[in-house]
Amino acid sequence: MKRPAAILLCALGGALFCGAQFFPWSRGPERPVASEGGWIRIEGGRMVNEDDLRTARETESHSTGTPLWTNAPGFGRDVFTFARVIFSVDSNRGTGRGRGRRLGWWVDYPDADLNFSWRLQMHTSIRTDPDARVLRLTNPDINRYPLLYMEHAGYIRLETRRWPRCGNTCAAAARSS
Predict the structure, then answer these.
(1) How far apart are CA 2 and CA 89, in angstroms?
(2) Which residue(s) pair with 47 in the sheet?
C-alpha cells in the first residue's frame, strides 16, 4: 500500500473511532428510569439497585478504592453527612453528542461522595459521616441534610405526583434561611 493511502486509511479509522464515542451505547437496552425498576449500571460497569441504596459505602468503588475512617463513639449524628440525591432521568433530555440517558445522579458515585467526605474531614476540623447517604427527594429524612448534592441535575425528570413533597421540602428550606 502506498504511503498516502496508508495515512488516509489511518486518519479515516481514527475519525470513525473518535466519532463513535459520541453515539449512544449499543450494549443492551437503554437504562430504565428509576420509577420503572431500580437496577442501573453505574461507572465501572457495576449494577446497583437504586431502590435499596442507603449509603455510598454499600457500593464498591470503581476506581482505586476509598478511604475508611471512623469517628468517636457517641458522635454518630454530630457530623456533616454528604447526601446525594437519586432522581429519575428524563429520556427526552440530553440528546446532544449522543449522551442521552447515560448521565445522571450516578456519575462518580460512590467515589466522589466518600472522597469528598474524607477530604473535608482531613483538611478541616469538621467531622464527617464515613458512609455518606443517597436518597430521593421524596425521602422523609431529607430535611436532616442541609446540603444536597445533585450530579447532572439538568437531566432530572420531575413527576407531578412527587411535586407536593418536593414543594414542602423547598418551602421548609426557604423558611429556615
Answers:
(1) 50
(2) 41
